[in-house]
Amino acid sequence: MTTLTLSKALNAGLRKALENDPKVLIMGEDVGKLGGVFRVTDGLQKDFGEARVIDTPLAESGIVGTAIGLALRGYRPVCEIQFDGFVYPAADQIISQLAKMRYRSRGHVSLPIVIRIPFGGGIGAVEHHSESPEVIFAHTAGLRVVACADAADAFAMIQQSISSDDPVIFFEPKRRYWDKGEVDTVAGVTGALPFDQAKTVLDGTDVTLLTYGPTVRTGLESALAARQAGRSIEVLDLRSLSPLDVDTICASVRKTGRCVVVHEAPVYAGLGAEIAARVTEQCFYHLEAPVLRVGGFATPYPPSRLEDHYLPDLDRILDAVDRTFGY
Amino acid sequence: MTVESGAATTAAQPTPEMPDQAGEFIQLLTPEGERIDHPDYPLDLSAADIRAMYRDLVLVRRIDTEAISLQRQGELGIWASLLGQEAAQIGSARGLEPTDMVFPTYREHGVAWCRGIDPVRLLELYRGVSHGGWDPEEHKFHLYTIVIGSQTLHATGYAMGIQRDGADEAVIAYFGDGATSQGDVNEAFVFASVFNAPIVFFCQNNQWAISAPLERQSRVPLYQRARGFGFPGVRVDGNDVLACYAVTKKAMQAAREGQGPTLIEAYTYRMGAHTTTDDPTRYRLASELEMWKLRDPIERVRAYLVRTGLAEPDFFAEVEAEAKQLGARVREACRTMPDPPPLAIFDNVYAEPTSILRAEREQYAAYLDSFASEENEEASSR
User: Fold this and answer.
1) Does the complex come out with an ipTM higher than 0.95?
2) Which of A2, A136, A146, B136 is positioned for an S-S bond with B142, CB 3.0–4.6 A?
3) What are the angstrom distances between the C-alpha of B164 and each of A98, A221, B3, B160, B253?
4) Where are the domains of chain A?
């Protein structure tokens, strides 16, 4: 076991993938010499060369579009989109091209492409650097959408995503890049939890708290605080946002009878809405309260001096937990 | 948005300039069927090769005519006609090596023909039976792309892959004059240029992007755009199958030899509607069409073959008979094409169906089965 930050764990996972498969490529803006603006690809171009770690022109649609061509040629590109708010120029290539190619070709074509996106707020950034666009991609059939929340998962899930024959949108919680965790970099990913499954990060009996990415840590902190008040919160890290691991979610809700979904993305038409609908359908007779959601408002992401009000924090989460006991 | 009268947009030229007046136009066969030599484009084709190209031209026009009729009869939802662009497509496609990769738009029926795609597969798409569905690698012909210009980036990436493989291959990306305004096409030019990718950008300038004339896309001749991106551009008579062949062959060879991309502007004309849903009489003059009919891409080859005695009258009769046969086969295959089974909706979304998809498929299958069992009950109660 090695103690690594989440960004270093991603770097180690990418390095493993480059070592294990000569078809793996990394491409994006500033990913080579600079090592990425968050240093996730630090040192990889030096060790694997400019043909495999490609500093691209500054054009997101171009990055994803050429990655599709490289994948058609048998490569496994890992694209970096520098910030969440910069992915939209690539929307046609991701939504209309990448996601649908297997379907359009009746299974003749696989596009094993990973698109890494640092997402979420809380770093005091300017506009377009703090967004959570995951539901746009979760709504798009043909894409897998995952989010890692800790260093060990970052290391394993990036490799699992690269090995997947489906396109994967890989969300990285940017304000947790510097969080440290224990990572077994020697062991492969064979024993790791499959990347389309949710995991229970804290057992509990009274409420199920479902979250992913940066708010997993917030959820855990909320659960520890609630414990002092005598409430036992079970925290699930969803990890896979599409497909959702509905079985694991519903097993927990049937046990606790209460469910709160937390994400930074706007609550309106967010992933929490899909979860609430499915939990209601499948756990109706087990529910003690409606499924409640905590997340961003139906506004654009605010200026950073206001982001603490926008982002779900411990108090807003505990407020929702309390409300589930009011029915 | 409202536009004040008088403040309307800058005046567009009413009719496209004829390229031979504008110069810089590679032509090896005049509209009258006369061969002219060009020092940079010596022709390496035998009489048999030219007869084969004539056959291609006639057969793809027949496929097109049949498809339009099938759409009128309700057998196809829509059809995008290639009428007038046969030479640009057959000439360029015959200038490729079998190992070269093609990225088409949705109008490249002539190129598809040259890559061995059965025309019935094209009709599947326009009938609504599939989204394409052929194996791109088997034919070295990618799926039709409908979003304008998106495929140029795929083509560029594929060419970057060829570079990494060190293969003696190149890529050709087809697109139209309208597509040159798209961001993706411009990004493809940038990527191909800075990475010196082995790719040829083949723009069929058919003068119209549905109702928008060329003047709405560009103030400069399209082939001149290439210079700004740092690679050569060349304009060819797109209705001259021999010139399209020679220019494409040379550009592909340059790409294979590591000289990077070329932009070819094939100057042609969309003689039909944009698709069968379109009505070009609303936006262009009949006289324009009449002018282009005199430049027909097939007639000039026929005139050349007749004048030079490179083909006997029997040859033309054989090609005509073959075209009739092909038309009949396409018609019959289209009319008898079955719909896919309903549960095929759920196939090939992911490498393996996800839990969400499996559940939806099971639920819908059970729903469909419920009708079957109702029918059985009704039948048994009678």
Assistant:
1) yes
2) B136
3) 22, 48, 51, 6, 18
4) 2-183, 199-324
